[in-house]
Design a protein that fits this description.
CATH class of the largest domain: Mainly Alpha
Number of domains: 2
Largest sheet: none
Structural class: mainly alpha
Number of strands: 0
Distance between the termini: 32 Å
Helix content: over 70%
CATH topology of the largest domain: Helix Hairpins
Number of helices: 6
């Protein structure tokens, strides 16, 4: 069953898909590129690769590219970072406990831990045995 975090990705993914389709259609019409070239340009721009083999020649195309960069790239980065957060939450609970133990050990080694945190860490470590 999808969690609320999984459901929260629906709207950003729809927005990203909308931006992608509109961008492909936009560059097909405004720049006269075929659909593959327009999709290629949109993909390369959203991926922030920017090979430079396709560049808009018209002023309207250049404005469209700027809009794509600001809206599309920021939306794509939002989706990517939130997918990572969902993936981290989906980690096996056993692995999560081990990761928490490693974080606690790191805090102990660096001395960046308060007395009450020390007690909780020791209690958790004794539970994990």
């Amino acid at each position: 069953m999808p969690s609320s975090h999984d459901k929260s990705m629906t709207i950003p993914l729809i927005i990203l898909g909308f931006i992608y389709v509109v961008s492909v259609l936009f560059f097909h019409v405004v720049e006269g590129w075929n659909f593959l070239d327009a999709a290629y340009y949109t993909t390369v721009t959203l991926a922030t690769v920017g090979y430079g083999d396709f560049t808009p020649k018209t002023n309207l195309g250049k404005l469209g590219a700027m809009v794509l960069i600001f809206t599309g790239v920021s939306t794509a980065l939002y989706v990517i970072t939130h997918f990572n957060a969902i993936r981290e939450r989906a980690i096996d609970p056993h692995v999560q406990r081990r990761l928490e133990m490693l974080r606690n050990l790191t805090a102990l080694q660096t001395g960046d831990v308060r007395h009450d945190q020390m007690k909780r860490i020791k209690d958790k470590m004794s539970e994990g045995k």
